Amino acid sequence: MTISSKYYPSEPAKPSVVTSSVPGPKGKEAIKELSNTFDSRPAYFVADYDKSLGNYIADVDGNTFLDLYAQIASIALGYNNPKLISLLDTKEMKNAIVNRAALGNFPSKELDSVLTKILKVAPKGQTHIWSGLSGADANELAFKAAFMYYMQKKRGGKDVPFTEEELASVMENKAPGSPKLAVLSFKKAFHGRLFASGSCTCSKPVHKLDFPSFDWPHAEFPYYQYPLESNEAANKKEDDRCLKIVEDLITSWEIPVAALLIEPIQSEGGDNHASKYFLQKLRDITLKHGVVYIIDEVQTGVGATGKMWCHEYADIQPPVDLVTFSKKFQSAGYFFHDPDFIPNEPYRQFNTWCGDPARMIVAGAIGEEIVSQDLLSHVNKVGEYLFGKLETLQSKYPKYFDRLRGKGRGTFIAWDLPTTELRNTLLSKLRLNGCNVGACAETSVRLRPTLTFGEKHVDIFIEILEKTVKELL
User: Fold this and answer.
1) Phi, psi angles (nearest 5°) of residue 157
2) Coil, helix or strand for 122?
3) Considering Cα of 319, then 324, then 326, then 327, what sign does the dihedral take?
4) In terms of CB atoms within 10 Å, which of 73, 121, 259, 452 comes out highest?
C-alpha cells in the first residue's frame, strides 16, 4: 500500500477540469464578491477545501487539480489528512483553540510536551525553540535574538547591566541604546514582507515598495551551471567569488554586521541552490568576524528536500546559530542551541501570544508522522523518480526545461523557461489541464508537492506536462 492510499483511500484517481477557464464562472463570481471585503486580486481560484483530498485541491467550479504547489509550499501531509483531523477531538487542541493562551505569562500545562514533540525533529545540533506566528515573524524574532546576543557579547556578558545612557537613549530611538546594526542577506532572497524582513528581501520590487528600509547589505548568491556534476570547477569558482563579496561586505559596511541570513535554496527568488562548500565557508566567515549565522528554512524545511531540514545536507560545523521555520510545519519560530540567545532579562523577546498553541500541536503531529511513516525516504524515492522523468522531457524539449535543478533534493525541483510570458502561459495551460503548479523568479517553474505525493502522481503529472508543452510548440 502506498503512502497516499494509506492516508487517502478515496483520493481522486486523476484530475478533472469541467470549465473552459480557471477560475470558471462560479469562481470568477466568488472572487468578485470577495473583493468587496478582501483584496482578492492574487487569487488563482477559490478553493473548496471540503472537497479537497490528499494531493488534490478542488475549486468552487467543480474542478479537481493535482496539486504540486500545496498552497504556497505549506501543506505537508495533504488535504484533510486524517491524522491531523483527529487532533480536533483532543482536549489539548480544544483548549488551544477555545482558551488560546498568552503563553509567555500563562503557559498551558501541555506546553512543555508540545514543544518537546517539535524539538524531536529539530535540526541537528539545535536544542531550544522560540515560537512565532509566520515566516516573516520568525525571521524578525531571529533578528531580535541576534541583535541582543551581539550587543550582550559586546557589553561583556549577561551579567553586565545596561548603562543609564543606554536606557535613556533607547527611548529616543538613538544610540547607544538603539545601536546601528545590520543583517547581511543575499540578492534574490525572500525572507518576508515585514519591516526588518523586508529589508532582507530582494526578490521582487513589489514585495517592499513604499515602506522604509534599513541600510543593510545584500551579497551575491551563487548562480550555478547545470548539471552540477559536469560543472564542478565553474561552480566552485562562483562560490569563491560570492564568498569574497560576503567577507568584503562584513568588513567594509558602514555599520556593524551583526547577523548573516541565508536560505539554503532561494525559493521565491528562483530556486537557487547553495552548495555544501558555500554554506560551510559562510560558517567559517561568521565565526571569524563574530557574526550570528541564521538559516531561513521557512520554505525548505520539514521534509520537502528529502531531509527534515535542507541545510543538514551541508553538515555545517559547528551548527548554525539560529534556524527559522514556518510553512509546512504549520507553526513558526526559530531553533537555537546556545543559551546565551535567551535574553538577559524577561520580556525582551516577548509578545502576547508567543506563538499559536493550536498550530504548535499540529507541528508536533506533522513531525511525528514524518518519522513514523518514514516520509523522508518516501520523498527521496519519489523525487528521484520525478527528476528522472523530467530529465527525459528535458532531452526532448530542451527549450522548456532549461537549468533543471533539484537532483538529490527530494521533490524540491525547478527549471527555467526562456521568458516570463512563456512560463506563465505554461502554468495557465497546466491548470486548465488539471495540474496546479507554482512559479518563482521571472522564468522559473517550481514543484512543491506534499510529502505524500507518490509515483502514481508523478506519472499523471508528467503525462499532463508533456501534453501541455506540446500545446505550446
Assistant:
1) 125, 170
2) coil
3) negative
4) 452
Q: Which residues contact 173 (CB under 8 A, 6 or more apart)?
A: none
Q: Is 64 a catalytic residue?
A: no
Whole-number Cα distances in Å, 258 to 185, 251, 434, 438: 11, 11, 47, 34
Contact 77, 52 (CB under 8 A): no
Catalytic: which of 327, 328, 450, 453? Answer: 327
Choosing from 45, 147, 186, 190, which is the catalytic residue?
190
Annotation says 296 is catalytic:
yes
- In the set 296, 321, 356, 416, the catalytic residue is 296
Domain 101-355 carries which CATH code? 3.40.640.10
116 assigned to active site: no
pTM as predicted: 0.97
Q: Within the chain, which residue ranges are assigned CATH 3.90.1150.10?
A: 3-44+52-81+387-472
**Is 327 tagged catalytic?**
yes
Tens digit of each residue's pLDDT (9 = 90 or more) over 171-211: 999 999 999 999 999 999 999 999 999 999 999 999 999 99
> Which of 421-430 are b and which e, b meaning 16 or more Cβ less than 10 Å from the residue's Cβ?
eebeebbebb
Q: What is the pLDDT of residues 17-34, one digit of tens each?
A: 999 999 999 999 999 999
> What does DSSP say about strands 64-67 and 56-58: parallel, antiparallel, or unpaired?
antiparallel
3-44+52-81+387-472 maps to which CATH number? 3.90.1150.10
Contacts within 8 Å (CB) and 24+ apart, 311-314: 311/123, 311/264, 311/279, 312/123, 312/124, 313/264, 313/276, 313/409, 314/264, 314/274, 314/275, 314/276, 314/279, 314/280
Residue extent(s) of CATH 3.40.640.10 domains in the chain: 101-355
Angle separating helix axes 420-432 and 455-472, nearest 10 degrees: 120
